[in-house]
Each structure stands twice: as C-alpha cells, then as structure tokens.
Amino acid sequence: MASSKIRAGVIGCGNICGIYFRVGKTWDVLDIVACADMVSEKACAMGTQYGILKIYSVDEMLADPDIDIVINLTVPKAHGAVAIAAVEAGKSVYNEKPLSITREDGQKLLALAKSKGVLVGCAPDTFLGGGLQTCRKIIDEGLIGKPIAANAFFMGHGPEGWHPDPEFFYKIGAGPMFDLGLIILRRS
Predict the structure, then answer these.
(1) CA distance 128 to 40
(2) At 46, which CATH number?
(3) Which of the pair, 78 or 173, is modelled with greater confidence?
(4) What's the mean per-residue pLDDT of the chain?
(5) Which residue range forms the structural domain that includes residue 150?
C-alpha cells in the first residue's frame, strides 16, 4: 500500500532546519524525504544527522516527481525566488518568513500557485494559534475599545547572541523589525 503521507523536501539546511527535521518526524501526515542546500556539505551534514536519504541539489529536488511540497528555509532574500521555482515545478511550498521581500514577488508567487493548482503557506503559523486568535477576537469585537497604539518588547539579545551566522538578519527583508512590521501592516 502506498504511503498517504505528503512527501516533503527541505531547501536550506542552515540554523533553523534542525527543528523542522525533528518536529517533522512527529507529524503523521508528513514525511521529510529529501534536503538540499546551495552548500552541498550543509545538506549532507543535515541529511546524515537526521536520517534523510535523498541529498539533492536544489534543481534535482525541484525535478523529483516524488516531492509534493518544498519547505523553503533559505535566507529571506532567496524566499521569493526559491518558492517561485518550486511552484513552477508544480510543487506546493511552505516558506519560512517572510513570504518574499517584495510585494510584487509575493503576488507573483500566489498568482502562479493559483494557476498551477498548488498551495502556498508561510511562517509564522503561530498566528493561527489560540492565544493570538483570542486577542484578535477581543479586538474585533471591541471588547477593549478601539486600540490607538501598540507596544512590543523583545526581551533578550538580538540574533547575534544565538545565530551562528547572523549577518543576513541585518540586510533588507530580514530581522525582527521586518517581521513585526509585516504583522502590524497586515491588520491595518
């Protein structure tokens, strides 16, 4: 009997991929079967560490008809291009945040996915969680009046305190301020 699991391939074997490989093993609907990275040594190391048998180049992964969905964990500046390439190859895609750096690339990606009949998802999926949905409901129902300001704090060191190569966080399209700004703009 054929597997009913969705077969996924991870593109981008940097700092965040480990959590996807670990948690991915706990999902009944998903089987992460392949990984790829522009630096083949990274893909080999992560594939070996997490028992991923297919170690590909990006092009090889996109050409594999057995991959149903690409989990795009590349650096932010590559999200749009990699996701568009995956959709052009007929694969659904789940991006780490942001979906793309430009609105135009995001719109192109979504229009292309619609025309190809594939799905697009993007982190942070935590916004679908109960806590934030409750906050949204409270605001939408006017239970606290009309919010006129917001304040947010990051309690801890920046990414240079935990990421082994944080330089990309300080380039266009990356970092916590970009992420938070998008969250606020989506609802305004």
Answers:
(1) 34
(2) 3.40.50.720
(3) 78
(4) 85
(5) 128-187
